[in-house]
Design goal:
about 230 residues; alpha+beta; 9-stranded mixed sheet; 6 helices; about 35% strand
Length: about 230
């Protein structure tokens, strides 16, 4: 089971669209207002990933049995997408979803959103997260990678024998990082994108270079939503 969509839930939709246009260039973002009930619970603006689980009701019930919390009722949007937004047992928010059925013409004419090249889970309990996501959603984990002061990372593939598309890391002892799913968005040049983030009121940490030679910067937009850019 894999992610098929990400959207931004934020406190200022127009300002967020303008900000990401300067950082990511020509792509169409799904941006919605952060619901007032979420704000009342203390939620901050954030990117939300939609995981294709097939049967939303059954997956949500199974996740809840393992300690996840439903953040409101299951809903269906006008296009037919069905989703249950949940906080996993490690504190990160995710949408368990079933995509809307679309015709070939709809798919061909669909707008292009941001290109997510890596899915990073920051969790308060990495052992439990690996068990939950692996057993419920069929993910497979490779050997952990110890990056010293940056932490230990657990790469995962979304199917048995597949290619790694993300990783998990434990932030239980890191007071500067809250549990969340971080989506690393492709940019043609990290330096230009970092300049755009800073110039338009965002925050940048990095850049960092991976063992494969990719360059990454961890960012926060002016409304407080965390994301990363990757070259």
């Amino acid at each position: 089971m894999r992610f098929f969509q990400v959207l931004l839930r934020t406190s200022d939709v127009d300002a967020a669209r303008a900000f990401y246009a300067t950082v990511l260039g020509d792509c169409v973002l799904d941006v919605v207002p952060l619901h007032e009930q979420a704000v009342a619970r203390g939620a901050r603006p954030h990117w939300l990933g939609f995981l294709d689980v097939g049967d939303v009701d059954r997956a949500a019930a199974a996740f809840a049995e393992r300690g996840a919390t439903a953040l409101g009722p299951t809903w269906v949007n006008p296009e037919g997408l069905k989703a249950a937004v949940m906080r996993d047992p490690g504190g990160a928010v995710i949408a368990l979803a079933q995509p809307a059925e679309r015709s070939a013409q709809d798919i061909a004419s669909a707008s292009t959103g941001p290109d997510v090249v890596w899915y990073m889970l920051h969790t308060a309990d990495v052992v439990r997260a690996k068990a939950n996501y692996g057993e419920l959603f069929g993910w497979e984990f490779a050997a952990a990678v110890d990056l010293g002061t940056s932490g230990v990372f657990h790469p995962f593939a979304c199917e048995r024998g597949g290619i790694a598309v993300g990783s998990m890391t434990d932030v239980e002892t890191r007071t500067d990082v809250h549990p969340h799913w971080q989506f690393q968005l492709r940019v043609p040049g990290v330096d230009r994108a970092m300049d755009a983030v800073r110039h338009n009121g965002g925050v940048v940490l990095g850049p960092f270079t991976t063992e494969r030679g990719d360059r990454i910067a961890v960012c926060e937009d002016p409304q407080g939503a965390a994301f990363a850019i990757r070259e």
